[in-house]
Design a protein that fits this description.
Residues 6-192 form the Guanylate kinase-like domain. This is Guanylate kinase-like domain-containing protein. Keywords: ATP-binding, Hydrolase, Nucleotide-binding. One of its GO terms (molecular function) is ATP binding. InterPro entries: AAA+_ATPase, Guanylate_kin-like_dom, Nuc-triphosphatase_THEP1, P-loop_NTPase. The chain has 194 residues and is an alpha/beta fold. It has a domain at 8-44 and 99-192: P-loop containing nucleotide triphosphate hydrolases (Rossmann fold). Helix content is 30%, strand content 26%. It is built from five helices and nine strands, in the order βαβββββαβαβαβα. A nine-stranded mixed β-sheet has the order 5-6-4-3-2-7-8-1-9, sandwiched between helices. Strand 2 and strand 3 (52-60) form a beta hairpin. It is globular and about 55 Å long. The two termini are 19 Å apart. The model has no long low-confidence stretch (mean pLDDT 93). Bound molecules: adenosine-5'-triphosphate. Adenosine-5'-triphosphate binds at residues 13, 15-21, 176-177.
């Protein structure tokens, strides 16, 4: 008998390699082949003004969005010490209000999408425990994580990468289309069992 496919699929790769694009395309294909899937989760996308990246936002899979981080100082009162990543200040409360409800483990969910578990998201002390509960549930999950920098993972990310139930897919521009097919096939098998 073939081994059961892993239930936690983690996509990693250098910045801009196409992790979010892969996740969204896999989701679109899954939704057309399995129209009744209950998918929950979120993805993050850039916010651009006049061609310049000025921040990131969180978008839930049911279409709600809010800020994740911004380089526009005016959004952030000086009186508060905001966590920062590079030039961006991170709006942890906004992330939590959108992402945490999406990560609640409910048995009527067929698939979780978590894009991404990165430095900004991990400023929320509630975020990583919520991701771990998803990883340890019996519900399939497709998540993105950053590559280690200078050979070191962000601490929470290392736990996900080394999770016994996880398959890690490392993207580069040469393999991202075949990776997408493998990930789709693996998730499709998992969806048939649900
Ligand atoms: N398979 C692909 N073929 C052609 N272009 C692609 C492909 N995947 C992604 N791209 C393009 O590469 C750019 C970056 O893609 P994407 O945002 O998905 O990368 P990412 O790895 O999620 O980035 P980040 O590390 O910033 O989160 C986008 O402009 C996207 O259209």
């Amino acid at each position: 008998m073939a081994a059961a496919p892993s239930r936690c699929l983690l996509v990693t790769g250098p910045p801009g390699v196409g992790k979010t694009t892969l996740v969204m395309r896999v989701l679109e294909t899954l939704r057309s082949s399995h129209p009744h899937l209950a998918v929950r989760g979120f993805y993050t996308r850039e916010v651009r003004e006049n061609g310049e990246r000025v921040g990131f936002e969180v978008v839930t899979l049911d279409g709600r969005s809010g800020p994740l981080a911004s380089s526009r100082i005016s959004r952030f009162p000086e009186s508060v010490r905001w966590p920062t990543v590079g030039k961006y200040k991170v709006d942890v409360a906004s992330l939590e209000s959108l992402a945490l409800p999406e990560l609640q483990v409910k048995e009527d969910t067929d698939l979780f999408i978590i894009d991404e578990v990165g430095k900004m998201e991990l400023f929320s002390s509630a975020f990583f425990p919520a991701v771990m509960r998803v990883m340890e549930s019996n519900i399939p999950v497709l998540a993105t994580i950053p590559l280690p920098r200078y050979g070191r993972d962000i601490p929470g990310v290392a736990r996900l990468r080394n999770h016994p139930g996880a398959d890690v897919f490392t993207l580069n521009t040469g393999n991202r289309d075949t990776m997408r097919e493998s990930i789709y096939n693996q998730l499709s098998r998992l969806m048939q069992k649900r």
